[in-house]
Amino acid sequence: MRLYARLLYEFVRSNAMEEMQYRSEFLGNALSGLFGVGLAVLTVRIFFYRGDRLGGWTYADVLVLLGVFNVLRGLIDFALRPNMPRLLEHVRKGTLDFVLTKPVDGMFLVSFRHLALWRLIDVALGFGLIAYGLAQKGYVPTWQDAAVFAVTLAASLILVYALWMMLMTTAFWVIRIDDLSFVFDSFFETARFPAGTYRGWLRFVLTYVLPAAVITNTPALAILGQWNARAAAAAVTVALAFLWLARRFWRYALKAYTGASG
């Protein structure tokens, strides 16, 4: 574990040095992120012109949910988005051989080698939106709420990583598709809204098959003080189960990989 912590530190340091060469872009990116959050809040406000609830959630609740969505999206754009599409390029060009010959885990290396540090701005804005939503609701979370929120948020991030990793691992067989990320993006966008807004088979799929509802709804309910231990335990269990599946799928795909000469 110390080796991978040291590697992660070196990845952060090297990417920070690279991004420091373009400091002027930082302010532009910060303004762009702030504009995006403002536009999202305006969109939510429009939904509430026709009623005081959306899928059973109040306006303040949805602001908290939107904050959780932005925190997760910021973390995804920080660590996963710079790396996942590169896996397809590695398989297509045969450069994955260079990754697999290094004395570290290949799945770790293809997942976290490149980091977009400036995307952490979205994480900060997301937490700010959560604080604003809680202020609108007039609710101060307890330390138990904060602890369950931290655990379920980490579980959500693990679940997102596992789902995207499994999707990109299919690149070992479908290398002619230019970018599989759009499939993940379409799925993740459904996590922006309360699970109650979906009906019928779509709600079943987003709850039990591809648990988008778990990704954002569970942490949001936790920080709003509406959590229960069974749901939190289920979120952690689902995340670890999908991570195990992603790991197994990765190893299975490597057996089918023939390298640059294949």
UniProtKB/TrEMBL annotation:
Keywords, alphabetical: Membrane, Transmembrane, Transmembrane helix
Superkingdom of the source species: Bacteria
Keyword Nuclease belongs to the record: no
Residues spanning the membrane: 26-48, 54-76, 116-135, 147-175, 201-223, 229-246
Keyword Membrane: yes
Name the UniProt record assigns to this protein: Multidrug transporter
Organism: Candidatus Reconcilbacillus cellulovorans
Source lineage: Bacteria, Bacillati, Bacillota, Bacilli, Bacillales
